[in-house]
């Protein structure tokens, strides 16, 4: 028989193959990240979408083949070809959906999927019962099997690699891969069609129950609509899961912020300071990075009316933020006190900051409350080699000095790297 094709239906078969491939890649890429029950549902959707899509593509391609007689098909064999397509697609997606899927899984999965596509194709061909029966060219038959296995391996490899790609980038990659897969599936189908050898004057069997008319464009439209609906539903589910993950992350960040940051001033709190001190001690060398801990306390905090206290401390925090150098670490240590951690405390670059600290305002623009500042310091490693010793020393020295007191002007402890009169070491005043 002379081979002729309706190229409109050939194009339609390619579109269906692309949709089927995209659905398989999409569902397969999501399986590893889903809970067990939902993964089973998605596996079923993926198997139905992929298997039905390839099956419909086959019969649309068959309808594109122009023959001198009306095509008809055996009902039971046609249904068997659909079951083969869906079943093997499901097995392949199940194998590749394993979180630890490797090269062996891809090989096994491609054997199932490629074998399923080929089985579906040739069982579907067998459904077109004819008298006398058709035969196949061995070389083209083998070529169609190789194309089916190779295309399946590529599809599953892409599916596995796309499991970690999310968002529009993942969709773009999946669609691009689906375009390639569509070419491969159609290539297998039309190679298999070219392998067919019809005897002269062959006629459809009289007991074929299915007319070829309903297996063409109508079935392609219905199948395409079903695949589209499945993708929309799954896409909505993915969006909901991403929103849920985003909300969970936000909640986690809120909990972390509550645990590590002061609710009033927004500064790191005592727990956060402890973590910072551990890291500071771990990376500091006694001879190279003698960092300082400056303890700043509002000495008259208890005298501030309760309704004004937090507002006053927020204003105080803002004043300290204004005067410390970039890179210095500021935390709220207690309701009445702040701590500044200064790297390379003896470096001359910090002298201006120490001067600004000596001149912290007693009254802020944001509140009329008078603030009575006092400060103390400790220095690593002279004052101590752990955070507890450093904090105790800084708090103790704060009892010996008050910011802005004239009688402390000019006093300097030579052992204190800060060289600030109001930040004297114990016993050095």
UniProtKB/TrEMBL annotation:
Organism, as annotated: Marinobacter panjinensis
The protein, known as: Diguanylate cyclase
Q: Which domain of life is it from?
A: Bacteria
| Transmembrane segment boundaries | 12-29, 41-61, 73-96, 103-127, 139-159, 171-194, 214-233
Q: What is the lineage of its organism?
A: Bacteria, Pseudomonadati, Pseudomonadota, Gammaproteobacteria, Pseudomonadales
Tell me which UniProt keywords the record has, alphabetically: Membrane, Transmembrane, Transmembrane helix
Task: Name the PROSITE patterns for this protein.
Answer: MHYT
Q: State a GO cellular component annotated for this protein.
A: membrane
Asked whether the UniProt record includes Transmembrane helix among its keywords, one would answer: yes
The UniProt entry, under Gene3D superfamilies, shows:
3.30.70.270
Q: Which residues form the MHYT domain?
A: 5-199
Report if keyword Transmembrane is assigned. Answer: yes
